[in-house]
TrEMBL record:
UniProt domain STAS: residue ranges: 13-117
Pfam family, one: STAS_2
Top-rank lineage group of the source organism: Bacteria
Protein name: STAS domain-containing protein
Taxon lineage: Bacteria, Bacillati, Actinomycetota, Actinomycetes, Kitasatosporales
CDD domains with a match to the protein in the record: STAS_anti-anti-sigma_factors
SUPFAM superfamilies: SpoIIaa-like (SSF52091)
Length: 123
């Protein structure tokens, strides 16, 4: 299992990335906007070799702007992205307003998200 932890210098956000075989778990906390998405962009690389599923633990997220949401959605075109755990109300509302909630699979926890059955990818 590989692991990368980064904290933004202004301490507004936290990203932890773990590799578990073909699953990449990304733990997010704090605020994510156009000025603080570098680590998120790296973690959610839609062309990451060997990754078939991204698991996003978003329980600690307090703010996401459209730039961050776009980065979270990029892998959805070719790979599954599963939101794990309780989605904070502000993020849930943004996902609902934009229709992005339909792009993600949801699971009760990170361990469940790593093994939940996923629908086939259609192109």
């Amino acid at each position: 299992m590989g692991k990368m932890v980064t904290e933004n210098a202004d301490a507004r956000n936290y990203v932890e990335m773990q590799s578990h075989g073909d699953v990449r778990v990304v733990v997010l906390a704090g605020e994510f906007d156009m000025d603080t998405v570098h680590e998120l962009r790296t973690a959610m690389d839609p062309e990451a070799p060997g990754v078939t599923r991204f698991v996003l633990d978003v329980g600690g997220v307090t703010f996401v702007d459209s730039t961050a949401l776009s980065i979270m959605l990029q892998p959805v075109l070719d790979r599954h992205v599963v939101l794990a755990g309780e989605v904070p109300p502000r993020l849930a509302r943004l996902l609902e307003l934009t229709g992005a909630d339909r792009a993600f699979t949801k699971a009760a926890s990170v361990p469940e998200a790593m093994v939940v059955d996923l629908p086939p990818r259609g192109r």
